[in-house]
Amino acid sequence: MLHRQVKSTSITSITSITSIGALAALLAGCIPPASEGTKADGEAQDSANTGGEGTADGSADGTADGTADGTADGTADGTADGTADGTADGTADGTADGGGGADGTADGGGEGGADGGGPPDPAAGRPAQFVDTASGIEFKLIPAGDFEIGCTPGQSDCRSNELPVMPVTITRDYYIGGTEVTQEQFELMMGYNPSYFGGCPTCPVESITWHEAAQLANALSVAAGLAECYACSGREEGARCTAVDDLPACAGYRMPTAAEWEGAARCGEDLLYAGSDDPDLVAWYLDNAGSSTQPVARLGSNVCRLADMSGNVTEWVHDWRDDGYYVSTGRIDPTGPSTGEYRECRGGDWSKEPDRVRVAHRDRGLAEFSNNELGIRLARTAP
Q1: Domain count for the chain
Q2: Domain limits for position 150
Q3: Closest listed residue to residue 241, CA positions, set 208, 283, 284, 269
Q4: What is the domain-level CATH number for residue 276?
Q5: I want to staple 212 with a disulfide (CB 3.0 to 4.6 A). Which of 2, 97, 208, 328 is the partner?
Q6: Which tens digits make up the pLDDT trace of 46-61?
Q7: Which residues in 135-170 are b (16+ Cβ under 10 Å) and which e?
Q8: Residue 1: what pLDDT?
C-alpha cells in the first residue's frame, strides 16, 4: 500500500429487455464461464495498512475492516467498458456484452435470480444498460428489490461488523458502473490522473479521495445536464464535498450506497465473491495480481455483468461507517449513519487476501485519504 503520488447525459441505450424470456436468452448467450478469464503473471506482495491506532488486520476488536488511521482498503470499481482499446464489457474485439475476446476477457458468472439485486426486471421497461456519452462509462441496471447483506450462509471468515445479517429493501431501480472508473475515463472528465500505477488507460483509477470521487460524479452530472448530488469546493486532494440529504432521490451521478453496492455485487446470489466462490475467476487480489492493479474486465463478472466487484481496487461508497449499523429488523433504502469519522469502502483490492475481497467484507477510510488501493465505481438512480 502506497499513499498517493500524483503523476500528472445523454443516454445511449445499448439493450432493452422486454421479457423474462429475452433476459434469459441474453444471459445464456452473452455470459461465458468465469473460468475463461485470464490473470496476470506474478504474485502480489503483502501490503500492510498501518496507522496510528490500528494494524493491517483491522481494528482492535478483530473486525479487520481497515486501519484506524483511515487507510482504506481501496478499490476503484468504476470502470470503462468503452476504453481506448475498443473493449466493450471486457471483450477485445469491441463486441457488446460478449464473451472472452482476443485478450482472454470473460464476462462470466454464475446463475442468479431476478429479485433483490439480480438481473434486470423487464417490467419497468428500462434499458438494461446505457453508456454515458461524456465519459464513455457503461452502466448496468440493478432492479429494486429485497435481499440480505452481511454474514449470510454463503459467507465465511465473517467479521463482527457483518452481523447481524440485515434484510434490505431498495425501492428504486438504479444503474451502477459495469467496471470501475478507469484512468482514461477519470482523466477525460477531470483533466488529471492521480494514479500511482499510471500509464495504464484501462486500469482502474486509484489514489483518489472520497471527495474526488464525488467531484467526478458531479462532472458527469454537469455534462449530462443532470442535478449535482454533491456540493463541492476545492480541487484534487484539496476537494471537500457534502452529499445531498436524500441521495437516492438525486437524479445525477453519485457513489452507490453500501447496500446498493452489496446488492449489485451479490446480484441475487449468495457467493463468497462477486460471481464465484473461487476468487481466481473473478478477482485481482494478493495471490494473482502481481503487486499492481490490472486492466478492468479481464476476469469473469457476476450475473449482473459487473466486473471487478471483488478485487482490483477497493471502491468508495457513500455511507459513513458505523460497525453497529446492521440490524436484524432490516432497513429500507439505507444510506448509512448521518455522520461519522470514516467513510465506507468495499470490494477489496490487488493487495488483499481472499477473505477481504468477499462481497460482505466492509472496509473504511477517512474521506480525505487516498492510496494506490482506492478507486471508484459510480451509480445513478434510474430515471
Answers
A1: 1
A2: 1-383
A3: 208
A4: 3.90.1580.10
A5: 208
A6: 333 333 333 333 333 3
A7: bbbbbbbbbbbebbbbbbeebeebbebbeebbbbeb
A8: 53
